[in-house]
Amino acid sequence: MSSSSNGLSLYDETKMPNILGWKFGIVVSEWNSGIMENLLVGCKDTLIRHGANINDIITYQVPGSFELPVGAKILANENQVDAIICLGCLIKGDTAHDEYIASAVANGLTQIGVMFDIPCIFGVLTVLNEQQAIDRSGGKYGNKGVEAAVTAIRMAALKRLL
Ligand code: RBF
Description:
The protein is α/β, with parallel strands linked by helices. It is built from 5 helices and 6 strands.
């Protein structure tokens, strides 16, 4: 996977299912709020464009990316959803905090997905600086919020098929 690719931001919409009636959870971190707003809008718009009802999208806010796994667990315990999308933005600083947090979140979300048997999508930017985050939240490298929504739809469809 190339860091400069548009990934799933450019995808074949005709191959996507109609998701009317499907339920989705979104857990979104508050850190780096401008970036998060763009990821969230891209994510919600994509679900709605493919047929989801706004009332079937449950959004929980958590303080930071580190809290995403527990936020996802609370959401999974309280709601029957087809998939949970976790959105965050970790920007590298002077210390290694970003590596510890990213690794904890990746492990935590994997556990939640397996434990609850619900697709739990890692929509966390792990970038070196703010410009890289801007480029990936509606900028020249697409919007990872859109990609997270597309992945959630595809995984939810796989689960419904089986
Ligand atoms: N949370 C984020 O979502 N993005 C960040 O870039 C981010 N940077 C942090 C830097 C430091 C030094 C610390 C201590 C926390 C940071 N957090 C960040 C918050 C973290 O995810 C969590 O909310 C707090 O550590 C409280 O558990």
